[in-house]
């Protein structure tokens, strides 16, 4: 007998080119650090960076209880590090959320908002170490974004 409800998800891990930059005086930073401070939460986050998964699959792979996984998923979702990307159904017909890392990567900058110019200078120095070819690639990408935005 064919199944009426999907038991698997075709969701994939996708990333945008626009990282969120958090600094120490950003309200979200504390929530992100707290959400990742647990070894279990950190392992869940690493797993979801590789592939989307349901709480049951995460619990099985990390040898944790589903309740414990749900607790950490709630914290990670609250910190906007992960999100529900799809829904599938268990063999018993129960609806299960499929989680994945958030599309926008997060860069944690261990300085204050006032230190952001220093961060920009550091990136410029880093770019100079990489040499002219990488700068040309970055400029080309910026121009292509500008051209395709119109």
Describe the structure concisely.
The protein is of the alpha+beta class.
Could you outline the blueprint of secondary structure elements for this entry?
Blueprint: E1 20-23, H1 27-36, H2 39-50, H3 55-62, H4 66-78, E2 82-89, E3 95-101, E4 106-109, H5 116-130, H6 132-149
Parallel strand pairs: 1-4
Antiparallel strand pairs: 2-3
Backbone shape: elongated
Gap between N and C termini: 51 Å
Strands in their spatial order, largest beta sheet: 1-4
Number of strands: 4
DSSP helix fraction:
40-55%
Q: If helices are DSSP runs of H or I spanning 4 or more residues, what is the number of helices?
A: 6
Uncertain segments: 1-6
Strand content: 15-25%
Can you tell me about this structure?
This protein is an alpha+beta fold and 150 residues long. It contains six helices and four strands; from the N terminus they run βααααβββαα. It has helices spanning 27-36, 39-50, 55-62, 66-78, 116-130, 132-149; strands spanning 20-23, 82-89, 95-101, 106-109. Helix 1 (27-36) packs antiparallel against helix 4 (66-78) and helix 2 crosses helix 4 (66-78). The radius of gyration is 20 Å and the shape is elongated. 15% of the residues are buried.
Keywords for this structure?
alpha+beta; 150 residues; single chain; 6 helices; two-stranded parallel sheet; disordered N terminus; two-stranded antiparallel sheet
């Amino acid at each position: 007998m064919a199944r009426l409800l999907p038991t698997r998800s075709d969701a994939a891990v996708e990333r945008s080119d626009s990282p969120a930059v958090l600094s120490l005086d950003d309200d979200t930073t504390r929530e992100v650090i707290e959400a990742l401070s647990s070894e279990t939460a950190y392992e869940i986050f690493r797993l979801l960076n590789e592939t989307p998964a349901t709480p049951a699959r995460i619990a099985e792979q990390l040898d944790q209880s589903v309740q414990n996984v749900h607790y950490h998923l709630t914290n990670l979702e609250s910190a906007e590090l992960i999100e529900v990307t799809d829904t599938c159904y268990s063999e018993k017909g129960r609806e299960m959320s499929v989680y994945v890392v958030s599309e926008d990567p997060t860069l944690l900058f261990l300085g204050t908002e006032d230190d952001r110019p220093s961060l920009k200078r550091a990136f410029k120095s880093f770019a100079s170490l990489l040499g002219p070819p990488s700068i040309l690639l970055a400029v080309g990408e910026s121009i292509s974004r500008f051209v395709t935005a119109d």
